[in-house]
Specification:
Helices cover 43% and strands 2% of the residues. The protein contains 7 helices and 2 strands. The protein has helices at 69-79, 91-112, 117-120, 130-147, 182-202, 205-208, 228-257, and strands at 62-63, 66-67.
Length: 258
């Protein structure tokens, strides 16, 4: 293994790098950016954490001996009263969650119409643009509802946009350069949302607790059975979080314009 001792690595880029069990001592990470990093079991001691932002799946995070994850969850639920609905336990709860999302998303779309086409394709801090976000949600519906749940082996539209960390799969479209107009993507998304609405409308508790039939043709997700609950929860999570990401980035775009 390589040891970096008294080295100047400012501006370096680490991508697809494994640092499991690495040790960092007297390391300056001022203004460093971490994305899609796995820090399970990491221990940070004697650190100076000032003006730090952390987002992601947070469990058992202790700050000065206090597990702050429950405090964060409670505050998020307070800020977003609809958030607890995204953790349904039965079929009726899934229907209520989807109805909530269909109530919230039009507000975000209306806000999007106040931006220029160029801004709707603009990335903020390396995150997806609003158009890319909508394309990814179409992909999520195709993957977890049309393919995994309904059994369509190839439900894809050419504008589907998989998550960046997914390995290229020849059977799944992945055109990162496409710049479709807002209305074209919204029409495609409306079709997928109608499918999800129908699935939730017909859902009962017995089906919710069951397993999907494996789709054997190549694609995403893999050729295996999945808990139905996992497939449908994935849709709620994607829809909830990406709407908030979009609203966050709209705030930045508005500030830039001002």
């Amino acid at each position: 293994m390589t040891d970096f001792i008294k080295q100047d690595l400012r501006g370096s880029r680490f991508e697809d790098v494994y640092l499991n069990d690495a040790r960092f001592q007297r390391v300056d990470l001022t203004n460093a950016r971490f994305r899609e990093v796995y820090l399970t079991g990491a221990v940070i001691s004697d650190a100076v954490l000032v003006d730090v932002q952390l987002s992601g799946e947070i469990e058992n995070l202790r700050v000065n001996g206090i597990d702050v994850a429950p405090l964060v969850e409670a505050e998020l639920d307070r800020r977003y009263p609809d958030r607890p609905k995204m953790r349904p336990t039965d079929a009726d709860g899934f229907r209520e969650a989807w109805e909530t999302l269909e109530r919230l998303w039009p507000q975000t779309v209306d806000r999007a119409r106040g931006f220029t086409p160029e801004q709707l394709h603009e990335r903020v801090d390396g995150e997806w643009s609003f158009i890319e976000t909508l394309r990814h949600l179409v992909f999520a519906s195709d993957a977890w509802v049309n393919r995994a749940f309904l059994g369509d082996p190839s439900p894809w539209d050419p504008l589907d946009l998989p998550h960046d960390e997914m390995q290229d799969e020849p059977s799944v479209p992945r055109d990162r350069t496409a710049r479709p107009p807002l209305d074209e993507v919204l029409a495609l998304r409306a079709d997928r949302m109608a499918t999800v609405r129908r699935v939730f409308a017909e859902l009962d508790d017995e089906r919710l607790d069951g397993m999907t039939e494996p789709v054997m043709e190549p694609g995403y997700p893999e050729q295996e059975s999945f808990p139905v609950r996992r497939c449908l929860q994935a849709i709620l999570d994607e829809e909830w979080h990406h709407r908030l990401y979009a609203e966050r980035d709209f705030d930045v775009l508005e500030a830039r314009s001002a």
